[in-house]
Write a structure and sequence with these properties.
The complex is a heterodimer of chains A (211) and B (220).
Chain A: E1 2-12, E2 15-26, E3 30-35, H1 41-49, E4 58-61, E5 64-65, H2 70-76, E6 77-80, H3 92-103, H4 129-143, E7 147-151, H5 159-174, E8 178-182, E9 193-197, H6 203-207
Parallel strand pairs in A: 3-8, 3-9, 6-7, 7-8
Antiparallel strand pairs in A: 1-2, 1-4, 4-5
Chain B: H1 3-17, H2 19-40, H3 47-64, H4 68-75, H5 78-83, H6 89-119, H7 123-150, H8 158-165, H9 170-184, H10 190-219
Helix pairs in contact in B: 1-6, 2-3, 2-6, 3-6, 3-7, 3-9, 6-7, 6-10, 7-8, 7-9, 7-10, 9-10
The chains are: A alpha/beta (211), B mainly alpha (220).
Chain lengths: 211, 220
């Protein structure tokens, strides 16, 4: 499967955040989205999953235009942003069961890619930030979607857990999946493609003689 | 089991364990008690005022738990997840409205025969009022989803929400109060009853689509 973006751009109010983003990504490859703070990494990721509208251009999946196709996106895309998508009142196992039920898939507790077996009975509000992130990342292995769109997935993970994440990412790519990752550091992965976003001055700033 | 049953079960569990269920039923009882006591001093408690108090108390208490419908999901990213889930947004909104009805309107309706005692409504009329409420309250839950979606992301917008949702309850209140009042005087107005039923059915049919459109616009 091949996901292609054709001259995507995004505007927030008057200011242009980025423009002319072109990429093409095949099954089994990883794409990094890099750039300084405020350059629009999260915006690009949210635009690709369809939470924001692109000003220009379109996105295709295997030559089919999916810019406005919610069903195909829901079938293939997974988004994990800054929020962990966890309900603090639930225990870890209840949260995993909810994800399993909705996606009609099962989490492999035998191999347990994110090593959550020791905290299954713990309430999520009692978990540490790193543990919550680990639970959030188990959703990647449950939903079994082809394209992962991750925004800073390794935030608050320690080295061991970053290693676990890398292994599950590698596993995902070996099974024909792809990932878009907005990140600052390389976390020891060689991406097959990189989108570099640079800060843009807003159009009003450029036209304003007083700035 | 179908995916949406998991969502419904989760929503139900979430709403029944949160404080808003307890608070809204308490609020309902408190409004009725204060209103009936303050009116009884004048000795002019008529069936019309009692019934109106009952319905307005119901509408106000139902509003209390509307804000949490989408706000917590929006804050913790669950709404993002639901947008990319195999369940359509309209179904999710419908499930939320059903949960709101089951956890907010239903408990108040169960208490209705009880709170009719201080209001001076006879028990058999109370049962008829209950039937009218059963017809009218789904509309309240479904219309509320529109308000919850409109104030999404707006912190502390409880008041704003009440200001523009309460007027939309007017048709339901007008017909609900009218039918209930006539019933307490043993008059059966079937045309008003059918209009209330029609309002309810139309709300159930169209609000999920309106609300989903609002949420989509909010995103893009």
């Amino acid at each position: 499967m091949k996901l292609t973006g054709h001259s995507l751009s995004c505007k927030r109010g008057e200011s242009l955040i980025f423009s002319e983003i072109n990429f093409s990504i095949n099954s089994g490859s990883i794409c990094f989205v890099k750039g300084s703070n405020g350059s629009g990494k999260s915006t690009l990721i949210r635009l690709l999953v369809g939470f924001l509208k692109s000003e220009t251009g379109y996105i295709t999946l295997d030559d089919q235009d999916i810019t406005n196709d919610r069903e195909i996106r829901a079938e293939n895309f997974l988004y994990l942003g800054h929020e962990n998508v966890l309900k603090p009142q639930l225990t870890v196992i209840e949260q995993i069961l909810l994800w399993q039920g909705v996606s009609q898939n099962t989490y492999n507790f035998e191999s347990d890619p994110m090593k959550v077996h020791s905290i299954l009975k713990k309430k999520l509000y009692q978990c540490s930030e790193g543990q919550r992130r680990r639970v959030a990342l188990t959703r990647l292995s449950i939903e079994k979607k082809r394209f992962w769109f991750l925004d800073e997935p390794t935030v608050s993970l320690d080295d061991n857990n970053v290693q676990l994440f890398k292994e599950s990412l590698k596993d995902h790519c070996d099974n024909g999946g792809s990932a878009f990752i907005a990140t600052h550091d390389n976390i020891g992965i060689n991406p097959s493609f990189e989108i570099l976003l640079s800060m843009k001055k807003s159009s009003t700033e450029q036209n304003d003689p007083f700035i | 089991m179908k995916p949406f049953i998991y969502i419904l079960r989760h929503e139900m569990k979430f709403s029944t364990t949160s404080k808003s269920l307890f608070l809204s039923t308490c609020f309902f009882i408190i409004i009725i008690l204060t209103a009936s006591i303050s009116i009884s001093q004048f000795g002019v408690k008529t069936s019309a005022t009692s019934v109106a108090i009952l319905w307005i108390a119901l509408a106000l208490s139902a509003l209390l738990s509307v804000k949490v419908m989408f706000q917590t999901d929006y804050d913790d990213g669950t709404l993002d997840w639901l947008m990319l889930s195999p369940i359509s947004l309209e179904t999710i909104i419908m499930l939320k409205a059903i949960t709101h009805w089951l956890t907010t309107c239903l408990p108040m309706m169960v208490l209705t025969p009880l709170v009719c005692i201080p209001l001076g409504i006879a028990f058999d009329s109370a049962l008829w009022i209950l039937l009218v409420m059963l017809i009218g309250t789904p509309a309240i839950s479904f219309i509320s989803t529109i308000g919850a979606a409109l104030t999404l992301g707006e912190r502390g917008s409880h008041l704003l929400l009440s200001i523009f949702i309460l007027p939309t309850f007017l048709p339901i209140l007008v017909f609900g109060i009218k039918i209930s009042m006539l019933l307490t005087n043993s008059i059966y107005d079937s045309s008003a009853f059918l209009i209330l039923l029609a309002i309810s059915l139309v709300c159930i049919a169209i609000t999920p689509f309106i609300t989903s459109m609002i949420i989509k616009v909010h995103y893009t």
